[in-house]
Amino acid sequence: MATVRTNDIETYYERRGEGRPIVFVHGAIVDHRQWMPQLDALSDEYTTIGYDVRGHGHTGGSAVAQYTLDLLADDLDALISGLDLDRPVLCGLSLGGCIAQAYASRHPDRISGLVLADTFTPGEWRWPERLQWAVLRATVPLTRLVGYQRVEKAMVWLQERLRGRNVSGDYARIEALRATGPTMETDEFAKVIGALLSVPRAEFDLSSLSVPTLVLYGEHEMGFVKRHAAKLAAELPRARVVEVPGGAHASNLDEPEFVTEAIRAYLSESTDGDPAVADS
């Protein structure tokens, strides 16, 4: 297995192709394979790298007592340095999008582009969003009793009853990833959820980020994620927003061809130094 030293751990990664580098950062409680459709498809023109975030997949856990977005962004920085990547494009989904934002706000000159999919950002959170986070916080003690797989299935079932089956997208793909990958330890689950819960209080300064940004969200996404897509577009100087027809919270798996082609078009049209990506 290919690994690179990132601070106190060995981080697992997979690399494909040759060309401009793209680093894919997955969401919580999955692994790098969440981005596999795009990793494979885009490697015909680009160097694509997917890695397992600390606590996940083949990277596994660590002795650190608490995970923060700063720590996860530091891991990403060490990976980029360790692989000698020259100003890659970052593609992050959900938690991965938060890690990408944290990295971009701290190292704006070390990236050439940003893709933020099905994600959210700090700032003013309304009561429905706070309610979502309260439910997320409640999963930690439940997970210690019955395991995160059962807790997540119960949450998916509840969301579908409240908002319709489309809200969970092609959830079978997520289940398949988890069934064939390393199992996450309960303590690691708690630390990852802790990092997610810190997002509303985080501080990202994206207003001066000069690289072009593509913001993606699924048609059937949760309302607060759609609102945050608009918020990101308003804060980022060179942002374009694209809705993924038929997509939900893992829109790149729900509609992989659409998302792949949206990213490909973004990459071909918006290299750093070109005119700003036009708003959609």
Give a written overview of the molecule.
The chain is globular, with a radius of gyration of 17 Å. The protein is built from 10 helices and 8 strands. Helix 2 packs across helix 3. The protein has one domain: Rossmann fold. An 8-stranded mixed beta sheet has the order 1-2-4-3-5-6-7-8, with helices on both faces. It is an alpha/beta fold and 280 residues long.
Tell me the layout of helices and strands:
Elements: E1 3-6, E2 9-16, E3 21-25, H1 36-41, E4 47-51, H2 69-82, E5 89-93, H3 95-106, E6 113-117, H4 127-146, H5 148-163, H6 171-180, H7 186-197, E7 213-218, H8 223-235, E8 239-244, H9 251-254, H10 256-269
Parallel strand pairs: 3-4, 3-5, 5-6, 6-7, 7-8
Antiparallel strand pairs: 1-2, 2-4
Helix pairs in contact: 2-3, 4-5, 4-7
Mean pLDDT: 89
Strand percentage, roughly? 15-25%
Described by the principal axes of the CA atoms, the overall outline is globular
Distance between the termini: 41 Å
CATH architecture: 3-Layer(aba) Sandwich
Indicate the radius of gyration in whole angstroms. Answer: 17 Å
Q: What is the number of independent domains? A: 1
What's the helix-strand series? EEEHEHEHEHHHHEHEHH
Output the CATH topology.
Rossmann fold
Q: How are the strands of the biggest sheet laid out side by side?
A: 1-2-4-3-5-6-7-8
pLDDT under 50 segments (min length 5)? 272-280
The top level CATH class name: Alpha Beta
Note the total helix count: 10
Largest sheet, in brief, is:
8 strands, mixed
Instruction: Estimate the helix proportion, in percent.
Output: 40-55%
* CATH H-tier superfamily: Alpha/Beta hydrolase fold, catalytic domain
Could you say which structural class the secondary elements and strand pairing correspond to? alpha/beta
Annotation, overall tally of beta strands? 8
